[in-house]
Amino acid sequence: MIIRKLEFIKELAQNFLNSPRIILEANYLAIILDYETNEGTYSEKKIVFFDVVDYRHISEENIKPEVIEAYNYVCLVSDSEWLREKYIPKKFKHFLIYFDEYGTYEVIAKKYKY
Fold it and tell me: Taking the CA of residue 69 as centre, how many other CA atoms within 13 Å lie in the half-sphere pointing to its CB?
């Protein structure tokens, strides 16, 4: 598994009020983060994935040590065993996010927006 960081997630896991929520509709998936801002107010942020084929959440106690480098980043997994196992066309990508205490969120999709 080769992990390449794409984009830093400014909302840090230690500021989350609850664990990230997942909304899945047809081929669209959103990870919703609710967090405390620097001003002490509360806000939400979405990371949205488009043309989703599959997703999985792995709890903190079951993650592999190599995913820790994905902490608070949207990452791209190169040489993805998951893509190979599912026989997914190359136009789809394996995205990975790791949030401390919440585990990893992995999505097979064409693209994302943060």
Answer: 10
